[in-house]
Amino acid sequence: MKKVSNILTRKGNRVIAIDGGTTVLDALKLMSDKNIGSVVITEDGEYAGLLTERDYARKVILQGKSSLETQVREIMSTHFPRMIPENSVETCMHVMSENNIRYLPVFQGTQLCGIVSISDVVTETILSHEETIEQLKSYIQS
User: Fold this and answer.
1) Which residues lie below 8 Å from residue 130, measured CB to CB, with a gap of 6+?
2) Count of domains observed in the chain
3) CATH code at 118?
4) Residue 107 belongs to what domain range?
5) I need a labelling partner for 21 at 20 to 30 A (CA). Which of 8, 43, 75, 127 fits?
6) pLDDT of 36-52, one tens digit each?
C-alpha cells in the first residue's frame, strides 16, 4: 500500500510559503509563476494555513474585496486535516473526498514537511496500478 511518504519522495517536499501579511494579488502572482493552486501561509515562520484558488474565488471575488488591499491571512483556510508521511494514499483520497478539498498539509510531528494535492494522489494511484500491471505481466510470462 502506497503512503504519503511515497508521494513526497517522488515530488519532493519543497513547500512554497508566504507570510500572512502578503497581499492576495502578490500571492496570486506567485501561484501563477509557480503553476500551483495553493500556497502555505506562515505567521512568525510557522504554518498558519493554506491559501487556495477556491479561497480567492469565494472570499475575495464573490465578496467584492480588493486583491490589492486584502492580506492572505484574512482569507486563508486554517482547518485542513493534517496528514503524516505514514498515512496511506487511500486515506488521503478518503479525507479529500469527505471534506471536498484538494490539498492536505503533511506534518512530521509539529513540522510541516509537504503538501499533497489531489493531482499527487491521482498520479500516485496511476503509478501504483501501472506497477501492479507490470508485475502481473512479468508473472504471467515466467
Assistant:
1) none
2) 1
3) 3.10.580.10
4) 4-141
5) 8
6) 999 999 999 999 999 99
